[in-house]
């Protein structure tokens, strides 16, 4: 079954009902590969969001007290529903986001894996009995769901980024108000449809689409929302952190990156090129952990560039549903113009385009995978996230120089390094100021490990046992007079 029409809900889900905007207005959702409108979603604002929060708060009173086994069973049913619908969900994702179908299928599978992981992990969310300083007391530390969670998600992984929030929140006993990105709302709404189908009670999950500032503003202002989990740009993340102050919400922030990719002379060249391709060109360079800056040691530099050029030459652009396509379009025209401006800036400052360099003949927002050599610290992409298929290559001499350059950014999400030297691997682990470090691998995300950034790349972690912590709060109870 590949028809996604039954999963493409053109309505919002509030308090267990599928509804439109109060104004009746809608927003178009387009396929970035064709420019065609694939459907519409309600253009909601603060009033609808307030109703969603009220529904979530009401549902929290009962859902948070349900049997653990009830929630775990529902989550396993949700996993099964996702896997049963993997193909139509992947096609829906490709239709609104543009990524190749193989990547979309992978995203649905990893989303299901996150939910399964948290359904397992909640069963081990133990409290503590702490030794008391006096014999007449018993000290307990217990864990409780934080309350209503606001979840705001981006367009680049509209399904799996929600899975990393929804899995732990629902496992812990929280209820949710979800705001998907404007460009890709259908993948988020599909989660609500499947959750409804498998029997999650009304109000546990609510999804609102429309004006980001109005919906976000209502979520942030409400004292009933006790936690906000956000994945998106550092700019919006900082705004939400400021807005969280008035009601002292817990916040989890998965923000932008500026990943360095270090290749040392002793690296396995083929492995490094393979890792470079996946970390740079997956999802057309539109991932938060995408390599932004390649630092290549002098001895291996020219060979690396030659092999990377060959590998980039094998990439195939096109509509994500076509056989063999590895690169979809960029999400919109603004994204294309951003990549163009990085290229213009870099060539003005001495960079050389050795592959690609412009818009593709396919038109629209398709862009040629591009390599620029001779990159230097004055170029804009040294500091800013590219979020497109542009590989910037810097040459370095000594290890210390590469580490200093790698750390010279406000971001601290992912870093990669290729080397066979065990001592160096430990130095990199200690010195690279990044939350995720890939040694001899360009793809390291997995449900079992924590995913989170340092510095301005974020707060908190998603995945791993740590990914549940943010949805549980501690209470200490002291029993005296025993
Ligand atoms: P974005 O910040 O523009 O949008 C993210 C979400 O925030 C969207 O749902 C958007 O509608 C919403 N939003 C925008 N303005 C808002 C406001 N005033 N109040 C409330 N919500 C608002 O980011 P994007 O362009 O969708 O996504 C790309 C960014 O996300 C990149 O910077 C990327 O690195 C980052 N990202 C980070 C991770 C991570 O795990 N660290 C993962 C994926 C993407």
Helix/strand layout:
Blueprint: E1 12-14, E2 17-19, E3 26-30, E4 37-42, H1 46-63, H2 68-84, H3 86-97, H4 101-121, E5 128-130, E6 138-145, E7 148-152, H5 160-172, E8 175-179, H6 185-198, E9 205-207, H7 212-221, E10 225-231, H8 234-244, E11 250-254, E12 259-263, H9 269-281, E13 291-297, H10 298-313, H11 333-348, E14 352-355, E15 370-373, E16 390-396, H12 399-407, E17 411-412, E18 414-418, H13 422-431, E19 436-439, E20 454-455, E21 458-459, H14 466-469, E22 472-479
Parallel strand pairs: 7-8, 7-10, 8-9, 10-11, 12-13, 12-18, 13-16, 15-16, 18-19
Antiparallel strand pairs: 1-2, 3-4, 5-6, 6-22, 11-21, 14-15, 17-20
Bound molecules: nicotinamide-adenine-dinucleotide.
Nicotinamide-adenine-dinucleotide binds near residues 155, 157, 231, 236 and 256.
Helicity level, as a percent range?
25-40%
How many E-type strands? 22
Q: Roughly how many Å apart are the termini?
A: 63 Å
Taking all Cα atoms into account, the compactness measure Rg is 23 Å
| Shape annotation | globular
User: How much of the sequence is in beta strands?
Assistant: 15-25%
**Biggest β-sheet description:** 7 strands, mixed
What binds here, in terms of ligands, is: nicotinamide-adenine-dinucleotide
Give unreliable regions as ranges.
Answer: none
Mean pLDDT: 98
Tally of helical runs: 14
What structural class do helix, strand and pairing data support? alpha/beta
Strand arrangement, major sheet: 14-15-16-13-12-18-19
Keywords:
six-stranded mixed beta sheet; binds nicotinamide-adenine-dinucleotide; 22 strands; 482 residues; alpha/beta
């Amino acid at each position: 079954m590949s028809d996604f029409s039954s999963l493409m809900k053109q309505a919002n889900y509030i308090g267990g009902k599928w509804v439109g905007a109060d104004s009746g207005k809608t927003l178009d959702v387009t396929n970035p590969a064709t420019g065609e409108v694939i459907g519409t979603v309600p253009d909601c604002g603060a009033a609808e969001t307030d109703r969603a929060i009220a529904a979530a708060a009401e549902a929290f009173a009962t859902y948070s007290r349900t049997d653990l086994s009830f929630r775990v069973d529902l989550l396993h049913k949700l996993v099964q529903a996702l896997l049963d619908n993997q193909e139509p969900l992947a096609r829906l994702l490709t239709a609104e986001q543009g990524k190749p179908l193989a990547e979309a299928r992978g995203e649905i599978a990893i989303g299901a894996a996150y939910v399964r992981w948290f359904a397992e992990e909640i069963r081990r969310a133990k409290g503590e009995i702490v030794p008391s300083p006096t014999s007449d007391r018993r000290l307990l530390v217990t864990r409780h769901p934080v309350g209503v969670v606001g979840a705001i998600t981006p367009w680049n992984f509209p399904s799996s980024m929600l899975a990393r929030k929804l899995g732990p929140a629902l496992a812990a006993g929280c209820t949710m108000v979800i705001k998907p990105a404007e460009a890709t709302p259908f993948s988020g709404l599909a989660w609500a449809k499947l959750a409804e189908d498998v029997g999650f009670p009304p109000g546990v999950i609510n999804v609102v689409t429309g004006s980001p500032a109005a919906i976000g503003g209502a979520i942030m202002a409400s004292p009933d929302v006790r936690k906000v989990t956000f994945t998106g740009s550092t700019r919006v993340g900082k705004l939400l952190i400021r807005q969280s102050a008035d009601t002292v919400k817990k916040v989890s922030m998965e923000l932008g990156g500026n990943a360095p990719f270090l290749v040392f002379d002793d690296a396995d060249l083929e492995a490094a090129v393979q890792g470079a391709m996946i970390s740079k060109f997956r999802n057309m360079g539109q991932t938060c952990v995408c390599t932004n800056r390649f630092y290549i040691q002098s001895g291996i530099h020219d060979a690396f560039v030659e092999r990377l050029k060959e590998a980039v030459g094998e990439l195939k652009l096109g509509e994500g549903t076509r056989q063999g396509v590895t690169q979809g379009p960029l999400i919109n025209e603004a994204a294309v113009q951003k990549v163009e401006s990085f290229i213009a800036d870099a060539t003005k400052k001495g960079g050389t385009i050795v592959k690609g360099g412009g818009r593709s003949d396919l038109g629209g927002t398709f862009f040629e995978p591009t390599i620029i050599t001779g990159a230097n610290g004055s170029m804009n992409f040294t500091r800013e996230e590219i979020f497109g298929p542009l590989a910037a290559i810097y040459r370095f001499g000594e290890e210390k120089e590469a580490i200093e350059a790698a750390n010279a950014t406000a971001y601290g999400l992912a870093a990669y390094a290729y080397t066979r030297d065990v001592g160096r691997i430990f130095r990199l682990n200690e010195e690279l100021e990044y939350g995720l470090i890939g040694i001899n691998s360009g793809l390291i995300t997995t449900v079992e490990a924590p995913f989170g950034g340092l510095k301005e790349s974020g707060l908190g972690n998603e995945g791993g046992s740590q990914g549940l912590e943010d949805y549980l709060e501690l209470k200490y109870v002291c029993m005296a007079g025993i």
